[in-house]
Amino acid sequence: MTATGVMGAGGARGAPGRGPWWWQSRRSAALDVSLAVASTVECVLEGVQFAQESRLPVAAGIVLGLLVGPVLLVRRRWPIVVVLVAIAVTPAELGGLLTVVGLYTLAASDVPRRFTVLLAGMSVVGTLIITLLKMQQDVASQEDFDPPWWFVPLVSVALGLVLTAPPVLLGLYVGARRRLVESLRERADGLERELMLLAERAEERAEWARNEERTRIAREMHDVVAHRVSLMVVHAAALQAVALKDPEKASRNAGLVGDMGRQALTELREMLGVLRTGEGAAASARVSDEPERLVAVASKVSRGPAEPAAPESATGTGSRAAAGAPGAARARAAAARGPSTVPESEGEGPSLAEVAALVDQSRAAGTVVELSVQGEPGAYGPGVEQTAFRVVQEALTNVHKHAPGATVRVRLAHREGEVAVQVENGPSERGAADAGLPSGGNGLVGMRERVTGLGGVFVSGPTEAGGFRVSAVLPAGQDR
User: Fold this and answer.
1) Which partner for 24 in 4, 11, 129, 173 could form a disulfide, CB atoms 3.0-4.6 Å apart?
2) Does the reported pTM lie above 0.90?
3) Options 3.30.565.10, 3.10.105.10, 3.40.50.620, 3.40.630.190; which CATH number does 351-480 get?
């Protein structure tokens, strides 16, 4: 806005002007040029008449009209100037169009209302005085016309108001409507920007949720596969070592490998069940069925020709009883239902009650594991129990991978409002040797994410004796 209160070339709507100079468009410029030409013609004619009445040269009236009429060209830029010029030439009875258009433009502009009222009042007073004097002269010049005393003032006031009030009122209405439209447009633009920002934030949250879900699935897959497969590799190595020397022990190891494979497949199926949709369900079932058949074939082959072919032999039954894992029972139940069956409770997961079976599996693999439980178990959420189980599972998996033959101590402490888990192993009897299992370095990261995600505390690191310790404290009232 300029000093006179009118919008500049940018326009009232904030859009860049597309017309010449201060006009917003070429149409606005053409309109103002047309009004200026009409005003110039009017002012020249009225100037000639004023010059004749005032006994001035006609050229002076023409020059005055040529100077006053084109002032309408700047009505959008400087409306106050236009009105002041119109007031200044009122005594010469010039610029009727100039006065009307100038007052309208002034009222419709963003000039403060006090200036509009002041200039409109000055225009009314000027028009009233000139009209009053002119009418008194005309009445005095006509001898046969004797109006009452109030006639001339009343007509002068009416004429002054007719010339000034309508353009002012129309300008005020147009200006208010324009500002309302601009306000609504600005509000719409603001809402559009806000919606775009919300859409961007929603996309960011969706991407974050997708990343979190990928991380969670990767962590679950790692916890399930790493532990079971590590034990299977350990048992397979023992099976290879004693296959010819001790067929009975080889049969037990083969049974353990089969049970562990079925447990891993069952847990994988529980996780993948929620991801199966439409045609992907059948494909996922076929994919999950192939590894199970391979595990069954591996179990039969590992028993050798001298062993019974029936899977429920006395030796095999004894080995499964030694495992004693509720997960194995679920595996056999799931195998009986078929590979494509989705569990009834998709959120079902391991719990603290299965830690003892987990320890027994590591013991069956030849690892010396000491389990101690302190306190009475409380009412924990499924997420807390599953996280505590996964911490023990991953810690034992790391022992099988990196410290074969080491003694392990697993401690569970049920305290008021929390449960503490600690898995500590001593130095490996085989020194720096490990089981040759691949490691992606995600085990400790996954444990830390699980524990801290529930508001717990996780600490891991080597011990002074050359072993490794994993500790976690979980608040009992937290859940996923």
Assistant:
1) 11
2) no
3) 3.30.565.10
